[in-house]
Amino acid sequence: MLDARSALSRGDLPAAGEAARAMILAQPEKSEGYFLIAMVAAEAGQVRKALPLVERALAIEPRNPEYLAQYARLLILLRRDGGAAAAARTALDCPTDDARTLDTLGCVLVRLGDHESSVQPFKNAVLLEPGNLDYRYNLAAACGFTGRVDTARAEYETIIAAEPGNARAHYALAILSRQTPETNHVDRLAAALDGTSEPQDQLRLRYALAKELEDIGQPERAFTALSNANTEHKRRIGYDFAQDDAIFDAIEAAFASPLTDEMHAGPSEAPIFVVGMPRTGTTLVDRILSSHPKVATAGELQAMPLAVKQAAGTRSRQVIDAETIRAAMQAPANRIGELYLARAAHHLPARAHRFVDKLPANFLYVGHIARSLPQASIVCLRRHPMDTIWSNFRNLFASQSAYYAYSYDLLDTARYYARFDRLMRVWERLFPGRVLQFSYEALVDNQEEQTRRLLEHCGLEWDPACLSFHKNRAAVATPSAAQVRRGLNAEGIGRWKAHGEHMAAVRGFLERQGISTV
């Protein structure tokens, strides 16, 4: 057993596999050999092959926390969230002093959107192995998501003290709170940037530096750092706007003909979809809605994109592409709704009457939402186009995600915004009044009036708690975490103007598209 585990830990998969198979031959009634051969398969990228082997191990030892944690992890990788949730909950009830198992459990809970429950496993993993910086980073991130800002800051500082070039920790610390001229990390970030040539680290450090420079009132230096980061990353990923253009074209073509599907009645506990371009106030509206006693937040679910993909039955690796868009139109509308609700159910807090799904990119799926979940409420955030484009350009999203590949170039972001705006007009024509176009600026200008309008659209009675959304204790796992905990303010309005010269080409493009920039 030790030979198999030690070979696995040093990455020698052939030796680990041979040792695990020998264990199975010698003691087929024991669980360990099946588990270790499963881990070898998983490390080799053969997740589907690994799964039944872990199940074999669990049939022998059904309450082994290590087996359960790894089983949950594999199920998450296969997007089987329901099984992952069940395995993780069982594992949480099984005592363990294995730090890796605890960290794995925490990571599974994060993927399920249960950030609050992830804190304790991460904390226990760090107590057991305080020198493991990956475990400490996971704890810090979970603390940041759940509003334990001082603890998160201390953990990130501990990581940086041990590893001064840790770009993940530098970036997370930079966005954790607003920096000031008196208290910032600009010099330390510049030194870390000078000390690395690794592209992903450079990307994070430049974004962190740009964020802090903008915080302390140095917009030109901020733009230089940001532009360098984005130019290099766009080159590395080989992005061409034609990729997103084709998706928008396919959606518009798919919904060009009159819709003849019967609108099937949905459940009374209908979801509320908050959609729009990223960085336009979607997290803010999610917090307002989930401050209502009858509403809980489910975070940014992948449930609708995956439901549409599953209903389409296409074999492409992309969740959304032209082929999938066309094929999904042949699926019964109620089938997509059923698949969506089944996937969403595993991410909902207990006893949630209504829930918010705030994946911004669901604006691409408004047609399917309207057809498959006719009782669902849909709110689309609208923010001044120049602020929207600047905010997309200046924020580091998931750098490997195709959803945000446009955001590393200002004109690409402007082109994406123009297609978003055009698609929202398509949805309004097809489903008039179904989507509430909700202005971020109007909300800031008149919070109560706009909050009442929002609640009315979602079929919710007035509750004053929605005005105190900053007191909402639910986790926030987006770059907006610091802002939404400070209450409503106008700081983000007109921020693009500090970079007016660099934004001139964007403004000209939008005006040629007939989009007002006044």
UniProtKB/TrEMBL annotation:
Family matches, as Gene3D superfamilies: P-loop containing nucleotide triphosphate hydrolases, Tetratricopeptide repeat domain
Keywords assigned: TPR repeat, Transferase
Pfam families the record matches: Sulfotransfer_3, TPR_19
Signal sequence extent: none
Matching InterPro entries: P-loop_NTPase, TPR-like_helical_dom_sf, TPR_rpt, TPST-like
Superkingdom of the organism of origin: Bacteria
Residue spans of the TPR repeats: 31-64, 99-132
Identification of the protein by name: Sulfotransferase
Species of origin: Novosphingobium kalidii
